[in-house]
Amino acid sequence: MLGNRVVQKRKRKATDGPPDAFGLFCSYHLGVTVDDGYQKPSLDGTARRYGMPPEEIKTLLTEYEIDPDTISKTEFDLEGAQLDIRLAPEGISRTEIAREHFESYRACLGEQ
């Protein structure tokens, strides 16, 4: 207690569970947050979201074929997808936009 105030402990937010390819794509490449918001994509942010070390996230990105090197070898427009997510208007689901881009990426990957 501080004076008459009671110090409340903040509950630590649970992690988002083990990542699948779509979840990693959303978080790492597009910046879609758990609550369908947006934050600048980052490896550290994705690692925190899933409660994993960054190196494990990098390994999963490679296993799922969504690592930056693999994406750059396709015709997929990652910059356009990132822009769509960042500028999504109020009331439009970023997750659903991301799902369309993920399917588009998977199609580009299959064309290699």
Question: Can you walk through the features of this model?
Answer:
By secondary structure, this protein is mostly helical. 53% of the residues lie in helices and 0% in strands.
Primary descriptors:
112 residues; mainly alpha; 53% helix; globular
How are the elements arranged and paired?
Elements: H1 21-30, H2 43-50, H3 54-63, H4 68-72, H5 78-86, H6 94-110
Helix pairs in contact: 1-6, 2-3
* Helix content bin: 40-55%
DSSP summary, beta strand count = 0
Q: Based on helices, strands and strand pairing, what is the structural class? A: mainly alpha
Oligomer: single chain
Shape: globular
Distance between the termini: 63 Å
Kindly estimate the percentage of residues that lie in beta strands according to DSSP. under 5%
Mean pLDDT: 88
SS summary, helix count: 6
Order of helices and strands: HHHHHH
Q: Which parts are unreliable, with pLDDT below 50 for 5 consecutive residues or more? A: 6-12
Domains (count): 1
Biggest sheet overview:
none
Rounded to an integer, what's the Rg over CA atoms? 17 Å
Compact description:
With 112 residues, the chain is mainly α. It contains six helices and no strands.
